[in-house]
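User: Before I run my own analysis I want an independent prediction to cross-check against. Here's the chain; please return only the C-alpha cells and, at the end, one sentence I can use as a sanity check.
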Amino acid sequence: MLSAKSLFQEILDNDESFRLFCSIAASGESQGGWENGRIAVLVPPTERDLAPKISRHGADEDKHGRIFNALLKKRALQPVQVPADTDYTMLLERHGIGLAHEKLKGEVALTVQDVVTYLAHSRVTEQRASEQMDLLRRHFADHPDLGRAVRMISNDEDNHLAYCHEELLRFAAAGHGRAIQRTLRECALAEIRIYRDVSLAVMAHMGRVLGWPRAKSAALAAGIHAVYAYERLGGWRRMVSLRMPERRDALGGPASAAPEFA
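Assistant: C-alpha cells:
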C-alpha cells in the first residue's frame, strides 16, 4: 500500500534517489536564503525594523541548505544538478510570484508594496513548507539520521509562517489589507499549479531512478492531481487566511546553528 512514509522510506533507502531529494531541497533552501538576504539589504527606510527578521529568515534558509548537503556528505554522496522541472523556487520566480530576481540584484531600495508582496508570497510558500516538514516530522522525528534535521527545519518553518502572519496583519492594520488579500490569492492560485507540476516532475525522476512500475507511477500521479483538484476547489484558502500566531516575534532573535552530522 502506498503511503507518504513508505514512499519517503523508499527514497531514503536508495543512494541515488536520496541524492536527488537532498539536492533539490538544498538548492531551493539556498535560493530562498539569497532572496531573503537581498530583500533585507534593500528594505525601504520606513521598514528598517524588519531587516533583522528578514535576515534571520534568510539565515535559516541557508542553514537548511547546509543541513541537506551535510546529510549527503554523511553518506559520502555529492549533490547532483537539479532538473529544471523540479526547481520550485525558480519556477515561482519565472511565473512572477514574489519579487523578480532582476530587482533583487539591483541596488534600488524596495517599496513598501514590494515588502507586502514578499510577505504575501512567503506566507503562501511557508504554509507549504510547514505542512511538508510537519509530515516528515510525524514519520521521521526519531530517525537516527534524519531526526534532528527534520525537527529543526520543521520548527524553523513554523517560525517563518508565524512571522508572515504577524507582519501581514501589521501591514493590514496600516491600510494594506486589500492589496494583501489580492496578492495572497494570486500567489496561492499560482503556487498550487506550480507545486502540482513540480510534484509530478519529482515523482517522474524518482520513478526512473527507483525503477517504479508504470502502475505505481500512474497511481502517484493520480494522487498528485487529486491534491491539486482539492486545492483548486477551495483548499487554497488555507494559504490566504491571516490570524495572530501563538508564536509572537518568531524571528526576533538570531538563527540557531545547524546540527553536526558525524
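Sanity check: The helical segments are 4-13, 15-42, 51-74, 88-94, 101-105, 112-140, 147-210, 214-233.
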